[in-house]
From TrEMBL:
Annotated keywords: DNA-binding
DNA-binding span(s): 45-64
Gene Ontology terms, MF aspect: DNA binding
Domain HTH tetR-type: 22-82
Keyword Disulfide bond attached: no
Cross-referenced InterPro entries: Homeodomain-like_sf, HTH-type_TetR-like_transc_reg, HTH_TetR, NicS_C, Tet_transcr_reg_TetR-rel_C_sf
UniProt name for this protein: TetR family transcriptional regulator
Native source species: Ancylobacter defluvii
Length: 220
């Protein structure tokens, strides 16, 4: 058969777009997350992201507007994921002390298991959180965890388990700080002190220390 007689093959990118638009969007976000985590917002290239997906650079811009819009969508997705996991814990069904300990342990585990989330938050802080500020979705998402903590804390105070006078935001910041630091500073602590906070024999101790610290804060 002559080259001119060769039947046309369906375009893989077009086929993926028409058959599974949500899957294409998901693929873009996954590839973008890897690119942004590795290179930051400034160093990431949309061409590289498109090359790793079943779509085109033009389609990425169609979905997200520009590189900063894509970056913001990745951050929104990452915050949405941790908030969804938190909601699945069913903390309202537990006694308040058990609920707070479970939330702290979960938060610690989530950060340890998802270092990309920590890295993206660090990158966003370099940019003075301007993309968080421009996202109404993230503001709404993150208020939900404060409401959850406030409810647990109020129940604990009412039952005489927690001391009064603590703000829900302060509890959240303490839980987040203990969990975040164990990932964000792992390399520097290993280099300075020769101590690997992520080692299998160390991680459980760090996790329990986080829970103990939060519970001590609430009780004393």
């Amino acid at each position: 058969m002559d080259k001119t007689d060769t039947p046309l093959r369906p375009n893989r990118k077009s086929l993926s777009w028409t058959q599974d638009p949500e899957g294409v969007r998901r693929s873009i976000l996954d590839a973008a997350r890897i690119e942004f985590v590795e290179h930051g917002l400034s160093g990431a290239r949309v061409d590289e992201i498109a090359a790793k997906t079943a779509t085109s650079k033009r389609m990425i811009y169609y979905y997200f507007g520009d590189k900063e819009g894509l970056y913001r969508a990745v951050i929104e997705e990452m915050y949405d994921r941790i908030r969804r996991f938190e909601r699945s814990l069913d903390l309202a069904a537990l006694p308040p002390d058990e609920a707070m300990a479970k939330l702290t342990g979960f938060t610690f585990d989530y950060h340890a298991d998802n270092p990309d989330f920590v890295r993206m938050v660090m990158i966003e802080n370099i940019h003075h959180a301007r993309h968080l500020a421009s996202s109404t979705k993230i503001a709404t998402l993150n208020l939900s965890i404060i409401d959850v903590i406030r409810d647990i804390y109020r129940r604990g105070v009412a039952e005489g388990l927690f001391r009064p006078g603590i703000e829900a935001l302060d509890i959240h910041l303490t839980i987040s700080a203990l969990s975040f630091y164990n990932v964000s500073n792992r390399a520097s602590i290993r280099q300075v002190f020769g101590h690997d906070m992520g080692a299998p024999d160390v991680l459980p101790q760090r996790r329990q220390a986080a829970i103990d610290t939060v519970m001590h804060m609430l009780r004393h």
